[in-house]
Amino acid sequence: MSGSVRAVYAAALGIATIVLVCAAPASAELEVTALQVLPRIDLRATGGDPAAERLRVQQAEVSVVASISDGQRELVTLNLQHNFETPMTGRAKQMHFSNLYGVFNLGAGQPALKAGQFIVPFGTLAEYDTHGIPLQTPYARTLGIRLDRGVELEGAAGEWDWWTSLTTGDGRERHDGGWAATARAARDYEVGQDIVRVGASALVGEQMPVFPTNAMALPMGMDDRVAHRDKWRVALDLDWLRGIDNIRGEFVAGEDDGEFVNGQWLYYEHPFSYDSVLSFQGDRWSQPDGTSYGLGAQYHYRLDDWSGMRFAAEKRWADRKGMPDMDSELFTIQYYRDWAWAPGF
To answer: What would the pLDDT profile of 66-107 be if each residue is shown by its tens digit?
Structure first.
């Protein structure tokens, strides 16, 4: 069964679960206590080198979020997302689409159990969602995955929030018995008038994907060149709210089949107002076959609470061992529109 067929099947199964719960007899004492349907459209005009000039639907998707209760407490929250149209293919598409999971309530004071297909809780991925943004964090290089299938526990202990997961390690697929175990902890610190959130992550896995060093903003059309390696990673990340500005960073080190890898990512965001935000980022990633670098800038203008536009530019370079160096540039104009439908019960 292909990955796309699996995604459709999983979405259909989840929606069928909601329907069955809604139709369950009163004696079962199960009910849907909250339901949201969240369509989204994302249009992008892109150009650059070697990218061709295009205007296309980047995302046309619908998310369904439903909470199921036994009449006394919430038992599970389902998050089901399906993408109907995108130019992304292969692994690039797998890294973005789709969330298909349930979060199960294990009781007061207990961690929540997440099961299904979800974002791996490593570094900034745990709390910074890049799904609908032109500028991406370097997860494709640092991990080779963003969404993965498995189980996760998430909870709190004192001032610390924590996550731990066991997943297949290869996105929607599983390669040659591969797996990945991830753990992360984070907490907030007050520094004068500033708030700094600091996190530490660790990952160990077998037969995880590795992209060759390249100068692409997101590796597209490289599926046949992906290798699989045994990995370990450690990371420190920060989210610093400095006045009205936001500074984020992630610093990663590890090994692929015993060979050292490391990288850094820094991001700065300045809001001129609620409707107008300018951001910059830079990243570097080094692995045995070379080193890649990237610089990007993005301006976000909200048209209203549900729609907006982003103008982004990114320049990338790659120094490849034994091969010619590469560079690329990508310019993006994005228009997005969200909707939310929440029927009453």
So the answer is: 999 987 888 999 999 999 998 888 888 888 888 999 999 988
Predicted model pTM? 0.88
DSSP 3-state assignment of 243? coil
pLDDT tens figures, 230-264: 999 999 999 999 999 999 999 999 999 999 999 99
Nearest-angstrom CA–CA distance, 119 and 112: 15
Could you say which DSSP state residue 126 is in?
G
Kindly state the tokens that stand for 117.
Answer: 């297909």
6 forms beta bridges with: none
Element (H, E) at 296: strand 290-302
Q: Cα separation of 295 and 112, whole Å? A: 37
SS3 305: coil
The enclosing H or E element of 90 equals helix 90-96
Q: Which residues are CB-neighbours of 143 under 8 A, at least 6 positions away? A: 120, 122, 125, 203, 208, 233
Task: Using DSSP, state whether 2 is helix, strand or coil.
Answer: coil
- Residue 311 has what DSSP assignment? E
C-alpha closest to that of 150 among 126, 128, 177, 171: 171
Residue tagged 């590796």 (tokens): 219
The arithmetic mean of pLDDT across residues 135-142, rounded, is 94
CB environment 123-142: b (16+ within 10 A), e (fewer): bbbbbeebbebbbbbbbbbb
Average pLDDT over residues 217-237: 89
Integer Rg of the chain from CA:
21
- 205, 169 Cβ separation under 8 angstroms: yes
Q: Is residue 92 within 8 Å of residue 106, measured between CB atoms? A: no
Pairing assessment for the beta strands 326-338 and 54-69 based on DSSP bridges: unpaired
12: left (phi over 0), alpha (psi -120 to 50) or beta: alpha
